[in-house]
Amino acid sequence: MLNSVYRLVSPKQIEKVVVDEQVTGDTVIVRPTNLSICHADQRYFNGLRDKEILNQKLPMALIHEGMGEVVKDYSGEFEVGERVIIVPNTPFEHDDIVQENYLSTSKFRSSGYDGLMQEYVFARKDRLVRVLPDVPSNVAAYTELISVAMHGIKRLERVENSDKKIFGVWGDGNLGYIVSILLKSLYPNSKLYVFGKEEGKLEMFSFVDETFTIDAIPEELKVSNALECAGGKGSQYALDQIIDHIKPQGSIALMGVSENPIEVRTRMILEKGLTLSGSSRSGVEDFKDTINFLSKYETARKRFENLVGIERKITTIMDIYTFFEEDLASSWGKSVMKWEI
Ligand SMILES: NC(=O)C1=CN([C@@H]2O[C@H](COP(=O)(O)OP(=O)(O)OC[C@H]3O[C@@H](n4cnc5c(N)ncnc54)[C@H](OP(=O)(O)O)[C@@H]3O)[C@@H](O)[C@H]2O)C=CC1
Ligand SMILES: O=C(CO)[C@H](O)[C@H](O)COP(=O)(O)O
Ligand SMILES: [Zn+2]
To answer: What does pTM read for this prediction?
Structure first.
């Protein structure tokens, strides 16, 4: 069946290609409707990855955060018109130990495999999760990032000690905001401190116990466990501060992605007996946990609406270029496209 796919062929150049899609008894055809930009997409769009990586991964359609409506279901599980979130990770094997998003055989949309910038997405039925009626489409669009935060917290839980008095989140952007919302709901008896660069952004974190700009952290302040949500070179500075302000034998979730390798003070990690938990992407179970979370915590669900930043209707390739530029310039929130191309 013919489908139009909008692929990034080189930095800042997207071309429409028509591909012949294979259909099986497990295929569900989804019309993408609301797509959200991730930092990873911006890195590809602007050519901020190594040349070898770009050569290896392009051409490909960008975007791995999004939802759409079922237009045809060969599996018989979904109704036409149902709103569904598309899980970007696609495993081809099961492993009892390694989770689906860490299997080298899995494919991940918009990382060497076509993302959601397509006329129709031909998805496997197990890669779709229904959107709750109370969740607006512009929030459902970035469920993937919520599931990433959920996954990171769950991985941290595997290694944490029993001290959960104070969580520290470094990063006052999208991921930091989402992680903070999840922590505040999941750990109502713990204190939550958020560390960021700008007062203006930190004001959005009114629901946490305290916020600090990173140049004014009291020397004696200590956290039990920490989550690094800064990314880029900021990961290095954040990790450095975390090492200073975390209690001995605390645990750190590393979630921010840096384009280039960063320096880490391993000596102090050893001296304080710290545990680092790396976490990347998410799997379908994390999406299901996210949906359950959204259904259980109404206040948290509403808070996610405050994270919607710019929203635009996209009808041409030129609109995509403009939107990626606007997203780069935007100071707060997730940028969501109404995909009408
Ligand atoms: N592990 C995973 O699977 C995933 C990882 N990510 C990664 O997470 C990172 C964050 O993404 P996102 O939240 O969308 O990005 P944002 O740019 O919205 O947020 C990052 C925030 O951290 C702030 N920051 C920078 N340096 C520091 C520091 N030293 N201490 C505290 N805060 C700091 C930034 O401030 P300013 O803008 O002023 O510099 C910004 O507000 C990115 O690297 C992204 O690629 C995203 C999705 C999934
Ligand atoms: O954003 C992400 C998940 O939501 C990941 O950071 C992203 O998938 C990493 O992949 P890549 O190596 O292609 O940047
Ligand atoms: Zn992402």
So the answer is: 0.98
